[in-house]
Write a structure and sequence with these properties.
single chain, mainly alpha, 3 helices, about 90 residues, about 65% helix
Length: about 90
């Protein structure tokens, strides 16, 4: 598949959140730290990765808007970035 054939995926985990891999890594860093029973090994990697994700998300969101335009903007309105968005009943 060439870059011209890319499609905006909105199924699977992407139905609920836009960046599930970052969420998985954040959970991994948290779990690894908790398993180690060491506050430094819990907080430092988690915070460092969270900062990197925060910086990266801004860039990725801009690229996705540039690539998919209004479709991505609409997709953002009903999905959370790192966690599922709470829906109104």
């Amino acid at each position: 598949m060439s870059k011209d054939d890319q499609q905006l995926v909105q199924t699977g985990p992407y139905h609920y959140m836009r960046h599930p891999i970052y969420t998985a890594y954040l959970i991994n860093y948290l779990a690894g730290g908790l398993i180690s029973s060491n506050i430094v090994l819990t907080v430092v990697p988690l915070l460092m990765y969270a900062v990197l994700v925060a910086l990266r998300l801004k860039q990725e969101e801009a690229v996705m808007i540039g690539e998919f335009g209004a479709d991505y903007i609409e997709y953002r309105q009903h999905t959370g970035a790192l966690l599922p968005r709470m829906r109104k009943s």
